Amino acid sequence: MPQIKNTISTDCAATLGHHLFEHSPDCMTLLDGADRLVAMNRAGLAAMDIGDVSQVVHSPWRDLWPAEAHAALDAALADARRHGSAGFSAACPTLNGTPAWWDVRISALPAAGEAAMLVAVSTDVTAQVQVREERERLLKELQAVHQRMSEVFMRAPAFMCLLSGPRHVIDKVNDRYRALVGERPLLGLATEDAVPELLPQGLIAMLDRVYQTGEPYAASDLRVQLQRSPGAAPEARYLDLVFIALRDADGSITGLLGHGVDQTHRKLAGIALHDSRERFEKIVSQAATGVVEMDVNGYVTLVNRRFCTMLGYDESELIGQSILDLTAPDSVDITARSLGGLLATGEGFQIDKHYRRKDGSLIPATSSVNAIRGASGEYRAVVAIVLDTTESKQAETRLRRLADDLAEADRRKTEFLATLAHELRNPLAPIRSGLGVMRLNRDLPAGMVRVREMMERQVTHMVHLIDDLLDVARISGGKLNLRMDRIALNGVLASAVETSLPLIEAAHHELVLDLPETGLLVDGDATRIAQIVSNLLNNAAKYTPAGGRIGLSLRAQAGQAVVTVTDTGIGIPAHALESVFEMFSQVGSGAERAQGGLGIGLSLVRQLVQMHGGSVDAESGGAAGGSRFTVRLPLAPGVPDAAPGTVDTPAQEETDAGSLHVLVVDDNIDAALTLAMILDIEGYTTEVAHSGARALEAAAVFRPAVVFLDIGMPGMDGYETAAALRRLPGIETPCLVALTGWGAEHDRARSRAAGFDHHLTKPVDLGTVQKLLADMAAASRGGHPPCARKT
Ligand code: ADP
After folding, report:
1. Which one of 76, 140, 293, 563 has the lowest number of neighbouring Cβ atoms within 10 Å?
2. How far, in Å, are 341, 455, 492, 601, 747 from residue 611 at the CA level?
3. How far is the CA of 526 from the centre of ligand 1 (A)?
């Protein structure tokens, strides 16, 4: 066997070297001592896309490399020259620009004395580098995904946990999970140890099942008791949750992912809502009023029992009906308009309307309606509370009828009072005239004079009562008119005193007057104001035991005339101070108070004062403490508080009957005769007739200058008789004086219209008749016609 030599000859080595250089699969480059390219093998030229070696020969090897590679390249060349070999790795694209990475080994060839040549063997590692870069990119991507997942896990709006192994060791939980189970050690612990309360609730067994079978577990509204802080009582939470198995690459289960949402708040709110709805429905169903809920278009969505009964429908028949279809035609308009207004403004309303019952009948009701809004303010429903007003409407009608009946009864009563008063006047007329006749008889024995005086007082009292009654009746009927004049009050007060003096004197009272020298002026009816004051003075006299003191004062205060009547009498209890002014009111019923009144005097006083724009009030020191009545009347505008008195007081004139012919016509024979008797005694020439027809006959013959003519006569009444008298041929027209029980202004106007010159109310006051006749006599003496309309 030939011995194998481990050396070869130089020629052989050169051939070998050349062969290895040319056929090496790597890129081989030969560099001269100045690192210039001397030769490149075939593989190198091909790898670097160099068509002809002349393109690169003699140029510095470094120029083939990109600038980034220069530092490593320079260092490796220097190292190779110093130590014989070196290496580096760098990217160097081919001349065509194809990217390529190279592992380069540089070796120095032996040389003597001069710079050695270098051989660089560059292995193309492009594929490895690209694989490595791809792996690194993938790794980075994976890390980013992992990071994102981790963030999602931590920030998810659901609670999440990652459990590993058969004991469900807690690897990772998010904040929501911690919030759910409460602050406690979790990570690294088996679920059973970290959250032990899950075990008795069967939840660890559930985790076991998912782990063993790989079947996911899902539940909603799962009630789980959790002890959320140490020592605290377990708390119920309502959870929607899912547990799924996690598997490794070969599909075996390694752990569980749990996630879910804590629905406790929603659940509790739902329970509360349900409870309140149930409570609401219970209240509504038992309510005594009808309740109906409808949608915003007016379609019924809920009704209570009462509403069903009211309308005669079943609940199921009402649901879905339009409220307008349940409304009576006369109320549809207002209902639709009010509902429109409610939805436009949000303001509730209340209306009286009629509903239509199932049987077609109508039912009156009051509906209070309001809108119900949702959380964002939108209208969700309309609720009406409906009150059946059938009974109250009936009661109202009954009351109205009752009030009408009462008013009618009151009107009749007033009418009756007026008629009664009028009728009472007729018999009083002859009595008063009779007393007048007696007065003219100067030969009466003293005893009879006292009787006559007593009778006169009583008749005056009765006349007074009747006048009051008539006035009250007139005021109630709105028929009393004031004759307004500018009047001086102290004169009026003086005449009131004159009227009441007989009563005051009869009871031996002391009368203390405190009247200003100059009169205060008011705009009013002098007769009525005198009547007011005289009523108060009469009361003071009546309700003060004999020998008392009565005061009357007048002063101006704050634009008002203040008239005060005081007495030292029995007084008025505090509780009755206001009611004494009411009609027919009398305090108590004791004998001491029985003073023959009707309980209308003060009512009249107040009404007359109010008609004058004034006020009256009473004060008292209580039982036996005396009383004080204060009347306030507005002073006349534009007049200083004090002004001279101007009230007329009749001047006493000499009576001169002369030969005045007077005809007295009255169907009441006594009345006619007594008046004629008085006139006879006074010296007039009289004639009497008891009917209109007789009066005309008498007038034709007797030719009266004055005729006293009763109005209310059967057959031809006073008006007709007056007209006929005026038409009597051949006689001068006499002066016509109406005698009547009716003294109101319109009665006077009517008698004036019928041709009467004067109007006297029965029973006529003798003084008035005397004055009237005296005036006429005086006028005819002076050559004037006897008539001048005054009364
Ligand atoms: P009468 O006709 O009863 O006097 P009035 O209306 O004048 O009616 O008075 C009503 C009641 O007021 C009287 O019945 C009396 O009880 C009481 N009254 C009126 N004035 C006085 C007074 N000066 N002192 C005590 N009581 C009085």
Report:
1. 140
2. 47, 34, 17, 15, 21
3. 23
